[in-house]
């Protein structure tokens, strides 16, 4: 299907927007009036610019508060419309979006509204222009898509149809099945936007919190499917008003929008979400850094068990946890994650089909082939079978208290939080948990955990939502058989390695739970879920950008100890790490 996007969805000047939209591979655009008004180019040149970029101008919008008005206002509105028709001729656009009247002065009379819309369609037809009428969720009298359709049917003009917008339909809780009762040729345009569930005024919700399909909680694909079933043959067009997108890099946002449409299209084709090749576990986590990190790993009980034959990379192991230390330089940081994949080449191909950058790799003769892509924060993600390990010729000394990597937490760059969910869901096939907001002493952190079925791969992305200096930290959480035993040893042998936990925390914990007094003695954090599952965890101090978490899950606990995260955020500011 043809894919379009409204210029309002990405940042920049109109020409920057068009370039970014074309670079992402869209076929067409909806030109938003506010973008055109501030553009120094005359409409003819905008038209030529779009054409040069291979973009069609599918729609011009919005035309507001036209219908349901007294006669004198109608005269003014028709005059206003004539000006827009002439502009559209210069622009080469032949579809005008008219949104339902929001004015308190609008008259609630369907016959009057339909008659006036018919008049508008007649005038438009003289310019070869058609009208797509859209019910805004906050329209004064017309705020349901089926009401807009009743008016269009009543008006009975071939140049008048409806514009369906998934946000307006789903934000009001309307049942989209009614779309199938609209003849396909009367659906002139289909706009797609998702949104998170928020309890707020619908206009504010629409203007600030829309996101691309798959980034929120709406069944956007369902709306598209009903429109296709009805016989709609126009473009799938993204129309997103979002405060972050307005500030973000236009090319990146446009590419993310395209990813959302590719994923949506394959949902429509396959009758379910595209089937990524889901990774089954962590093969390794790779960290830049040597001395200080090596010291910390030794303290944690890791042994250096192998070396790469040609690269300055060491393998460190403990139980099933494998870490690579890469001496290539730079401050200590998590630079790559290896995921066990049943089909590494297929996984890369799938990621590429969703516009993820595939990373070129150099490899020596006889070395294992490793396929990698870039995660949204730039971390390299490798898809691995067993062969990579043999490059390091491990010596088999891998015993210890740690059993594997439980999860990895990455910092998402500012303004790109929505991108992360779509990436991990569609590219890696992870399922998101509800997002969380966590207080930081100097701001607020947004956090979202995503996991594979069975929990073999768990990823957490964090982003500074308000204030603070951003959240550059990343961490690797290591699963322990007995975290209290680990804590006992580390607190005794390596004072200063673990974050100290305030006594106030334990006073509160003991008020909530019958907590083992040893938790307080050892500075171990604790959480319990509704089913009695328990989570014991503690943190190391930070080295460069990274720290480690030691965790133990008991009784099917499936969370991440989020209630305790603010303790870590605060303690690192009080000199703890
Ligand atoms: O927020 C608005 O006013 C607005 C304008 C045009 C649209 O297509 C829309 O969905 C919303
Ligand atoms: Mg709309």
Q: Quick check: average pLDDT?
A: 93
The CATH architecture of the largest domain can be named as: Alpha-Beta Barrel
| Number of DSSP helical runs | 18
Taking pLDDT < 50 over at least 5 consecutive residues as the criterion, the unreliable ranges are none
Cα radius of gyration in angstroms: 28 Å
What fraction of residues sit in β-strands? 25-35%
First and last CA, distance: 52 Å
CATH topology of the largest domain: TIM Barrel
The CATH homologous superfamily of the largest domain: Divalent-metal-dependent TIM barrel enzymes
User: What is the top-level CATH class of the largest domain?
Assistant: Alpha Beta
**Shape, per Cα inertia axes:** elongated
- Cofactors, ions, other ligands: 3,4-dihydroxybenzoic acid, magnesium ion
SS elements, strand count = 24
Report the helical percentage. 25-40%
Helix and strand composition category: alpha/beta
Number of domains: 3
Task: Please provide a written account of the structure.
By secondary structure, the protein is of the alpha/beta class. It has three domains: 6-270, TIM Barrel, CATH 3.20.20.150; 281-390, Roll (2,3-Dihydroxybiphenyl 1,2-Dioxygenase, domain 1), CATH 3.10.180; 402-574, 2,3-Dihydroxybiphenyl 1,2-Dioxygenase, domain 1 (Roll), CATH 3.10.180. The longest helix has 21 residues, at 71-91. Residues 61-62, 97, 99, 134, 136, 165, 191, 206-207, 239 line the site of 3,4-dihydroxybenzoic acid. This is 3-dehydroshikimate dehydratase. Its cofactor is a divalent metal cation. Pfam families: AP_endonuc_2.
């Amino acid at each position: 299907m043809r894919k379009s996007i409204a210029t309002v969805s990405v940042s920049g000047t109109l020409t920057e927007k068009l370039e970014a939209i074309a670079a992402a591979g869209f076929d067409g655009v909806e030109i938003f009036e506010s973008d055109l008004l501030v553009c120094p180019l005359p409409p003819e040149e905008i038209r030529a610019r779009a054409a040069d970029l291979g973009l069609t101008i599918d729609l011009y919008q919005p035309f507001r508060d036209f219908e349901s008005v007294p006669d004198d206002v109608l005269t003014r509105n028709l005059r206003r419309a004539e000006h827009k028709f002439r502009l559209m001729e210069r622009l080469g656009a032949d579809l005008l979006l008219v949104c339902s009247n929001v004015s308190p002065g609008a008259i609630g009379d369907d016959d009057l509204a339909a008659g006036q819309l018919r008049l508008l369609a007649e005038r438009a037809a003289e310019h070869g222009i058609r009208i797509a009428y859209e019910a805004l969720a906050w329209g004064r009298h017309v705020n349901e898509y089926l009401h807009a359709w009743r008016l269009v049917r009543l008006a009975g003009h071939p140049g008048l149809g409806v514009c369906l917008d998934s946000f307006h339909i789903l934000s009001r809780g309307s049942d989209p099945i009614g779309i199938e009762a609209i003849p396909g040729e009367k659906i002139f345009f289909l706009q797609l936007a998702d949104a998170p569930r928020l309890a707020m005024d619908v206009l504010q919700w629409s203007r600030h919190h829309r996101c691309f399909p798959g980034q929120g909680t709406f069944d956007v694909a369902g709306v598209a499917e009903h429109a296709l079933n009805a016989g709609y043959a126009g473009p799938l067009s993204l129309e997103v008003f979002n405060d972050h997108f307005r500030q973000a890099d236009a090319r990146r946002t446009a590419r993310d929008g395209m990813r959302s449409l590719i994923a949506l299209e394959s949902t429509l084709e396959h009758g379910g979400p595209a089937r990524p090749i889901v990774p089954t576990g962590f093969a390794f986590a790779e960290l830049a850094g040597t001395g200080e990190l090596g010291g910390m790993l030794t303290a944690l009980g890791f042994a250096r068990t192998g070396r790469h034959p040609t690269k300055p990379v060491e393998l460190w192991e403990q139980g099933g946890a494998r870490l690579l230390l890469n001496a290539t330089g730079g401050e200590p940081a998590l630079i790559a994650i290896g995921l066990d994949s049943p089909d590494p080449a297929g996984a890369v191909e799938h990621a590429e089909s969703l516009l993820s950058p595939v990373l070129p790799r150099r490899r020596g003769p006889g070395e294992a082939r490793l396929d990698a892509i870039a995660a949204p924060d730039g971390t390299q993600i490798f898809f691995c079978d067993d062969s990579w390990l043999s490059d390091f010729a491990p010596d088999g000394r891998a015993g210890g208290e740690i059993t594997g990597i439980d999860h990895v937490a990455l910092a998402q760059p500012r303004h790109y939080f929505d991108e992360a969910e779509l990436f991990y869901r569609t590219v890696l096939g992870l399922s998101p948990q509800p997002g969380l907001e966590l207080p930081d002493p100097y701001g607020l952190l947004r956090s979202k955990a995503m996991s594979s079925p069975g929990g073999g791969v768990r990823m957490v992305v964090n982003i500074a939502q308000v204030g603070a200096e951003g959240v550059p930290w990343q961490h690797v959480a290591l699963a322990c058989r007995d975290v209290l035993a680990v804590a006992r040893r580390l607190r005794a042998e390596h004072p200063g390695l673990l974050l100290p936990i305030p006594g106030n925390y334990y006073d509160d914990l003991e008020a909530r739970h019958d907590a083992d007094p040893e938790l307080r003695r050892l500075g171990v954090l604790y959480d319990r879920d509704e089913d009695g599952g328990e989570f014991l965890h503690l943190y190391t101090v930070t080295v460069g950008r990274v720290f480690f978490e030691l965790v133990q899950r008991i009784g099917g606990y499936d969370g991440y100890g989020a209630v305790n995260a603010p303790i870590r955020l605060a303690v690192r500011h009080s000199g703890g790490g």
